[in-house]
Design goal:
Distance between the termini: 46 Å
CATH architecture: Orthogonal Bundle
Radius of gyration: 19 Å
Order of helices and strands: EEHHHHEEHHHHHHH
Number of helices: 11
Number of domains: 1
CATH topology: ABC transporter involved in vitamin B12 uptake, BtuC
Shape: globular
Largest sheet: 2 strands, antiparallel
Structural class: mainly alpha
């Protein structure tokens, strides 16, 4: 059997596929961060907390109201997105003309508050969310047995990422969004309510994080700490792709997830730091990121 670095190819391919699952979550979370920073200039450090709130919204909806997974996929992002809109109106909108550091500090503080409240209410231990009946079972890919739900995560995230990229980069709505953030006074003169557009954009970015949380709930333990463990990696992914680059966030998230999975095979000890090593190299060679503008 053909080997790579002393490991059979089926083992390598299987680990790459599992890495693609993680990369799907990285891509979705990075996408939300890129939307918020690229269009609003806000470094949203609370993104991991909104990811966690999305998962908990699905879990609470199931336990308290019997809301199933498919409804939660729609309802949880809407609820968390609406909560994000409230925060934007009350707090963030006062910081747009200030240094981005102020937004980072504010959202970092919000993340600590959300995490503390959820730990007080639910404890630090994780809770499982059941896989929906329609997505149970496995797929035989020849080189590995892949759970159907993980295959669904890959497909769903790719579709969501493509639709978001297409909306922002190739539609009139996306052109309006970009114009409203680059030259709000000019756009306002055409009768477009720029504050409403900014508000909805932030809500959409937060909703993407919550949607990723719902998708991840059946895969990992739903806990107040789940956002903290992933947000630092996601920020590294965004930096590598280019801050504010929608395409960079998607491509970097997917590729780095597979790189991380490949590293777990050939050198497991480095799998937790390989993303940050790549980030350091990219910052030295191309500070704006692979897809960012100089």
């Amino acid at each position: 059997m053909t080997e790579i670095f002393g490991y059979p190819i089926p083992v390598i391919l299987g680990q790459l596929m599992l890495g693609l699952v993680n990369g799907s979550f990285y891509a979705m979370l990075s996408l939300g961060l890129a939307v918020i920073f690229g269009l609003l200039g806000v470094v949203n450090f609370a993104h991991g907390a909104f990811y966690m709130l999305g998962a908990f919204a699905a879990l609470i909806g199931l336990d308290a109201f019997g809301i199933n997974y498919w409804v939660a996929l729609v309802l949880s992002p809407l609820v968390v997105g609406a909560f994000g809109i409230v925060l934007e109106r009350l707090l963030l909108r006062h910081l747009y003309k200030l240094d981005p550091l102020y937004g980072l500090l504010l959202t970092f503080g919000l993340a600590l508050i959300f995490e503390g409240v959820m730990r007080y209410r639910f404890g630090a231990s994780g809770t499982t969310y059941p896989v929906p009946d329609a997505l149970q079972g496995v797929l035989n890919l020849g080189f590995m047995i892949l759970p159907v739900y993980r295959a669904w995560v890959i497909v769903a995230s790719l579709v969501i990422c493509f639709v978001t990229w297409f909306t922002i980069e190739r539609t009139r709505l996306g052109a309006t969004l970009r114009a409203a953030t680059e030259n709000p006074r000019l756009v306002q003169s055409f009768g477009i309510n720029v504050p409403i557009i900014v508000m909805l954009t932030y809500g959409a970015g937060v909703g993407l994080a919550a949607l990723a949380g719902v998708l991840s709930a059946p895969v990992i333990q739903v806990s107040p700490l789940m956002g903290t463990s992933v947000v630092v990696v996601v920020f590294a992914v965004v930096v590598i792709g280019g801050m504010g680059s929608i395409l960079g966030a998607i491509v970097s998230g997917l590729v780095l997830g597979m790189v991380e999975g490949f590293t777990k095979v050939i050198y497991p000890e480095a799998s937790n730091i390989v993303v940050f090593v790549i980030m350091a190299i990219v910052l030295v060679l191309r500070p704006a990121g692979l897809f960012g503008r100089e």
